[in-house]
Amino acid sequence: MKSHEELLEEFKFVNDAVQFLKRILMIFSFDKNEIKVCFNGGKDATVVLYLTHFALQSLKSPQKIKCMNFVEKQPFPEAEKFIEQVNEKLQLDITHLQDGFQKGLTQQVEQNNLKAAIMGTRRDDPHGKLLDRISVTDGNYPSLLRINPILDWTYCQVWIFIREFNLPFCDLYKQGYSYLGCQTKTQKNPLLEEGQYPWQLKDEHEQASRSDFLISQRVDKDFQN
To answer: Is the pTM above the cut of 0.85?
Structure first.
């Protein structure tokens, strides 16, 4: 079995993200509530959480990771269970926010001095194409830095990191999901064949677990025809 250091040497994209987060964590402090990780139990959120964990380890920092969980209106019980399992393993400090992303973020900025949020956004995500690795919130959101350490990762790279570094992940991914959100807006990926796992999908097929994905695909096709 390869050591942690050997894995970081082999997978340069992982090491690059860890080094990026080390620089961020030398500026913003968990102890002062200046920065938190967005963690909802999904694969991308799990990836940035563990990258943050590795960055703190490399810095030899005793800080406890603080997280925000923006609770879905109808969350998957499996996702909630996984969050608690990771919480117990890494000894996190998680704030569960029930009033949606915008209200929850505003509360954290106004009441807790939050200046930056580490997020699992990637280019393939809705609204991800126009972001930078460090982006300032816009629109009606409170002023905050969005830290996007895996912005330029592919779907396949996410699973390479999870599987090569032996990270835990939510059981729903073994049940045919490739994306996790609210129960009413998430479905098993219809592009997965019998016996296939989501890490065997092509990058462009990830979003088919979103219930609105196939509808939008059909609309685009109809429009083009």
So the answer is: yes
